[in-house]
Write a structure and sequence with these properties.
By secondary structure, this protein is an alpha+beta fold. It is built from ten helices and seven strands. It has a single domain, classed as Nucleoside Triphosphate Pyrophosphohydrolase (Alpha-Beta Complex).
Length: about 260
Amino acid sequence: MGARPEDLEATWRSIRHAATVLLVRPGADGRPEFYFMRRPDTMRAFAGVWAFAGGAVEPGDRALAAEWIDPGRATALAEAWEKDPASVEMERFLAWAAPRFRERSGRVPEAVVPPLGFDPPANAAVWVTAVRELYEETGIWLGDGATPAAFDRLGAAELGPAVGRLRFLGRLVTPSHQPVRFNTRFFLARLEAGDEPAADGADRDREVAATTWRPAAEALAAQAAGGFPMAFPTRFVLERLAAYATVDALWAAYAGRRLD
């Protein structure tokens, strides 16, 4: 017997919305390099692993997004992009992860994926979350001009250009066997010439233990050798992007996935 609609809705509501940003730059040999941060061992989720910048949607992100992003349009775009084979998407992730889950626990967890239409305002808010988290964790401000003093006072003139520099990669939802679950949207951001992540981001002491730039193939090889622990979603996304030989080629593949 399947879950009752009200039970399924309660499950969807228990999964937190989140955004993850892959910051990329050309390496010395021209290959794309991604910015990784090692999470402190004390963190509740993904402790001790190498990950990308990101975090959960906060009420302030929803409030900012409500002022100038059309949630219906953000939802329709995300729904269309998820159908593209190039997308980071849950069904593809589970097919990739199934043998790994079986090796680790003997079973493949159930996929409970909230439809994007369940919470349209969240589909708008995640864009703001991506901009905010990237700034808080790396000091990189994607907008024009000076960095903001307070995100809750930003408007369309400041957030519009910042969001315009993001490209939507796709969405993954933490499998049902995990106690803390996230409905995570992945974004790509290109590091501009002259920019550099700060060593003293607002959340660095609390959320970042170490940082490094690595090409996808190098990070995956280091993980396989046991020296660069990453969560399954990070590995999955990297494998999908490892084939791109240059940042320009990678950027072109997702160039149309923007919210202006």
